[in-house]
């Protein structure tokens, strides 16, 4: 069933997990709501490096590959699909960290699979993996104020300090990897 995910054995890319932070590349998007996934991966991984033939920046540490797509949000799957294949990581060991309109700003929630709810980055990943059954760390950004279009909201700068939310999302990833989804949900969902 998961023949697509057979390891190609590139020595520098050995990992049991793939953690992907969603966002848009480039300085103009750095501090926007759509880039909170990038921020969480940066917290976990530090410096990322390009991988030849893959549209992503990657850091592999302790069996976990941390990645940021070098494509724009709407085509993130072009990085995630080939990287998962290169690593031999199956969807149930892929953690996608992303912005979530349906959660209040500051909240973090964890789940496996589900609908993409209009999130084009998730749609692209689902298309390239051929399944929705990958793990998600959802970082709440809230809904736009009345009269503001969703694209304008997600591409606008974040208000205030979100370092606590970024740290909580990073903790969620660490808990999933070390103790499993149920434990991560119990800990993270209990956080106010």
From TrEMBL:
Biological processes annotated in GO: protein quality control for misfolded or incompletely synthesized proteins; rescue of stalled ribosome
Highest rank taxon of the organism: Bacteria
Enzyme Commission number(s) of this protein: 3.1.1.29
Site feature location: Stabilizes the basic form of H active site to accept a proton: 99
SUPFAM superfamilies assigned: Peptidyl-tRNA hydrolase-like (SSF53178)
Any one GO MF annotation of this record: peptidyl-tRNA hydrolase activity
Major localization class: cytoplasm
Record site: Discriminates between blocked and unblocked aminoacyl-tRNA: 24
Major enzyme class: hydrolase
UniProt signal peptide: none
Keywords assigned by UniProt, alphabetized: Cytoplasm, Hydrolase, RNA-binding, tRNA-binding
GO (cellular component) term, any one: cytoplasm
Binding site for tRNA: 29, 72, 74, 120
Localization of this protein: Cytoplasm
Catalytic machinery residues: 34
Reactions performed catalytically: an N-acyl-L-alpha-aminoacyl-tRNA + H2O = an N-acyl-L-amino acid + a tRNA + H(+)
Family from the record: Belongs to the PTH family.
Purpose of the protein: Hydrolyzes ribosome-free peptidyl-tRNAs (with 1 or more amino acids incorporated), which drop off the ribosome during protein synthesis, or as a result of ribosome stalling.
Record text on subunit structure and interactions: Monomer.
PANTHER family: PEPTIDYL-TRNA HYDROLASE (PTHR17224)
NCBIfam families: pth
Protein's name according to its UniProt entry: Peptidyl-tRNA hydrolase
Gene source species: Corynebacterium haemomassiliense
Lineage: Bacteria, Bacillati, Actinomycetota, Actinomycetes, Mycobacteriales
Gene name, Swiss-Prot/TrEMBL: pth
